[in-house]
Predict the structure.
Amino acid sequence: MTGPTSGTRPDEIRRHNRTALLRRLHIDGPSTRASLAVELGLNRSTIKALVDGLAEAGVVAERVPALRSGAGRPSLLVLPQPSAAVVIAIDVRVEHVAMGFVGLGGEILGRDSWNLHRTRDPGEVITHIVESARLMADDLDATAVGVGVSVPGVVRRADGHVHEAPNLHWTGVALGKRLEAVLKLPVQVGNDAELGALAEHVRGAARESSDMVYISADVGVGGGVILSGQPLRGSAGYVGELGHMVVNPRGLRCYCGCDGCWETEVGEPALCRALGLPDDAPRGAVVAALRALDDPSVLDEFADWLALGLANIVNVLGPEMVVLGDLYTALPASVVESVSSAVQRRSMVSRAVGGTQVVTSPLGRDAKLIGAAELAFEPVLDAI
């Protein structure tokens, strides 16, 4: 941990150390004071003062570990208290919305979800979010301090303006400002794949990777990128439309206006065609077909297009790991393994680094909800 620069005020140093301690407990869970001192590069007296202050405020608690070793006085565990800071996480998808109240430490305290069917009007979605949030707050006796929202579209991070979410038929929706106006809380809005990447980096398969790419398949295909431990957000926050990389100029017309975008070859409709299902088959039917698949070779062409796109992404971005999320988590293990091998074979960068890992997400359908919660917690941890 780097030391404070010359001229830094003591209260700024304390605030910095307090935030670092809270972030460590929020992300990695309970720890002893001694371990915290080593990990954060602080002396024990500083850790004691910070923990004592947080305990007095009800933000953390201390207890004797369930498993003790050795003689003498046990080292107490410092635990974050979930109710000390609660955020609302919202995952807006093409067919449904999921919501969770998430406490400090990442514990999901309560959930709700509902189908959108054909009703995707932004005003109606916002109204349902507000009503559900109020009911959940009453049921849980919880007061939220922030909101994070995941949206499958191009989002301006500064104010949560949804420039375009084609599969929702949204254009120019001031989602962040509209939700702030009715919820009376700070609202952070992000692209769904970007937040999936954040979740995998913080709590999923890529916890130990500083460079990773998350690829999600819903109706469309999106990507989120973490480079050197930080999310890649691009100009004004518009980044991650990896599904619109053109891989087959003679392919199908994409809704974006191009022909042969990657998502036309590896999105949900393409997977349905490979499985012999209608393009608009229900998600449950697609997952069931994948799990019942006797002959994974029917996915060979699909897997080839998936590997082609991933090889391009690995060559450009050089990640240590690629995490496949959403519908891709239901792919047979043999298909994922063949895609991983093909990426290494086709990508010079993958070969140079000894093989970029291609894995499926352990967070499954919760990835974007978890990412939305972490987005909401970013400013909260500085303010507790």
About this structure: The mean pLDDT is 92. The CA atoms of residues 217 and 327 lie 5 Å apart. The two ends are 21 Å apart (CA to CA).
